[in-house]
Amino acid sequence: MKRLLLVLLWGALSIAGFAQSGQESVIKQILDQQTASWNKGDLNAFMQTYWKSDSLVFVGKNGVTYGWQNTLDNYKKGYPDKTAMGQLRFTIIRIEYLSNQVYNVIGKWQLTRTIGNLQGHYTLLIRKISGKWLIVQDHSS
C-alpha cells in the first residue's frame, strides 16, 4: 500500500512539474511576442499581452497607472515614434510558479536607441484568464 501511494505521489509530482515547464514556455512566448511587436513599432500589438481591464496595474517611474487603456495611452505618450521606442530586449532572470493560474516573472529590459539607450528591471504578474495567459500587473523601472 505504501509503495502504491509513493508511486502515485511521484506520478502526480512529475505531471505537475511537466505542466509547469510547459507553461513557462508560454510565458516566454508572451515576452517574445511583446518584443517583436515593440520592435516593429506597434504598441497596440504590444498591449495584446496585457489584461484588457480597468483592473490592470502598471507601476512605473511616474507611479501607478490603472487600466489597459490608460497604460496604452502612457506608452504612446512616452514612446511616440519608432525612434523613441528603439529596439527592445528582455532578459528573464526568474520565472516563479505561484499556482496553476499565476506566474511571477522578474527580468531586465533594454532599449537600444539612437537618442540614448535605456534599461531597467521589471516584475510581471501573469495570470491565466479565460484560458489565456495575460499580464495583470507590471512593475517596470
UniProtKB/TrEMBL annotation:
Pfam families: DUF4440. Keywords: Signal. Residues 1-19 form the signal peptide. Residues 27-135 form the DUF4440 domain. The keyword Signal applies. The keyword Nucleotidyltransferase does not apply. This is Nuclear transport factor 2 family protein. It comes from Niabella yanshanensis. SUPFAM superfamilies: NTF2-like (SSF54427).
